[in-house]
Amino acid sequence: MINRVTHQTVQRSTLANLQLNLDRMSGLQGKLSSGKVITKPSDDPAGTAQALQLRADKRGVEQAARNASDGAAWLTTIDSALTTSLGSLRRARDLTVQGANGAAGQQARQAIAMEIEGLRDALLSQANTTYLGRSVFAGTSGAGSAFTMTPATAGPPATPPVYAFTGGEGTVERRLAPDAVVRVDVDGSAAFGAPGSTVFEVLDRIAADLRAGGDVAQHLSAIDTRMEAMLGELAGVGTRHRQVMDAQQGIEKSLMDLKGSIAEVEDIDFAAVIVELQSQEVSYQAALGATSRVLQPSLMDFLR
């Protein structure tokens, strides 16, 4: 059986092909203008799922990068505070040795005592160092400072200054990876001493003995103990800082790899799309030419 072909059938077929070419060209133009292979999930469901997972991984790595940057800032702040504190404590030890010299007169001992009290205040300021409003030596405590001082009273009875540690029991940590967490704070009582044996109280006793004419050499061992404790904490800070820096390098590489993977899934090959678009434009122009010829003859055509 022979199917009957009419002008209307040819027109419908030609217009359908013309619309198909136009749709393909529109899709290519959309890819070229957006620079993306996937403009909607239906373009590539599998690629869309892969892109979403890669972007989720990228957000996790970016958060780890922020954590590492914040942790590095905490540890840098602590390193500076402990280094400065060690310098002050070394100076206090030198002054104590100088004050223990029997040749020093009372006026010289008084001057040494005043300088030691100045170093005590400087150490207290370093012990209360903060980063973004949080004390770096108070753990998870919400207190604005790690140590507080109740001034001495003249009496009677006279009382020495009282120092209290306000730090919390928890530690401040930053997650650098799903299985890697680093501590970014330092226990103030470990670095500067617990109440009753703080470096501030040691220096207060030295200053009092200097004014009273007592033997201050007995306090050298206490200063050495506090210096050893600070050095130990400083070494720990250095180790953790190196860990954070190494993690930052790994995070940076992971971020670059993820960006490359996302680009492979989502981004177009501009050269290939341009060539395909030009080819499709030629095809569309040819389809337009064919469509223009599909015209049903009129009565005037027959009369001519």
From TrEMBL:
<dbReference type="GO" id="GO:0005198">
    <property type="term" value="F:structural molecule activity"/>
</dbReference>
<dbReference type="InterPro" id="IPR013384">
    <property type="entry name" value="Flagell_FlgL"/>
</dbReference>
<keyword id="KW-0966">Cell projection</keyword>
<keyword id="KW-0969">Cilium</keyword>
<dbReference type="GO" id="GO:0071973">
    <property type="term" value="P:bacterial-type flagellum-dependent cell motility"/>
</dbReference>
<dbReference type="Pfam" id="PF00669">
    <property type="entry name" value="Flagellin_N"/>
</dbReference>
<dbReference type="InterPro" id="IPR001492">
    <property type="entry name" value="Flagellin"/>
</dbReference>
<protein>
    <submittedName>
        <fullName>Flagellar hook-associated protein 3</fullName>
    </submittedName>
</protein>
<dbReference type="InterPro" id="IPR001029">
    <property type="entry name" value="Flagellin_N"/>
</dbReference>
<dbReference type="GO" id="GO:0009424">
    <property type="term" value="C:bacterial-type flagellum hook"/>
</dbReference>
<keyword id="KW-0282">Flagellum</keyword>
<feature type="domain" description="Flagellin N-terminal">
    <location>
        <begin position="6"/>
        <end position="140"/>
    </location>
</feature>
